[in-house]
Amino acid sequence: MREQAHDRWLRAVMHDRGLSPAARALATVLIADFLGTARAPDTDAFAKAICTSQRTARRALDQLAHAGWLTMPDRPKRGDPPCIILTERCAVLPFPGAAQTEQGPAT
Fold first, then answer.
1. Which branch of life, at top level (predicted)?
2. What is the DSSP-derived secondary structure letter of residue 16?
């Protein structure tokens, strides 16, 4: 059940076109590599995982938080790993033809 929730979360994040490619890559890495690990990863580990600088990894993490996909209750001090909580957002994905059914059939 938990795997299904993580899969839904990741699919919804991937459909959020307001996110940068680095933020989407970081979301994938969070689910695939760091979820359930004994030790919380730091920004350096995120940067290595998505092959970017620490600054870009930090921006991606902040972007996911700002978009509401995760929360960080306590802002970590420099060098400390962040506490990350994945949050569910109501992501409404448009279906093909949805605009036609709302306004009637296209003529």
1. Bacteria
2. -
pTM for the model stands at 0.72
pLDDT digits (tens, 9 = 90+) for 25-75: 999 999 888 887 766 688 889 999 999 999 999 999 999 999 999 887 776
Cβ distance 40 to 83 under 8 Å?
A: yes
Using DSSP's 3-state secondary structure scheme, residue 70 falls into strand
Cα–Cα distances (Å) from 75 to 24, 46, 79, 81, 103, in that order, read 21, 16, 11, 10, 46
CATH, domain range 2-91 = 1.10.10.10
Tens-digit pLDDT profile for residues 24-36: 999 999 988 888 7
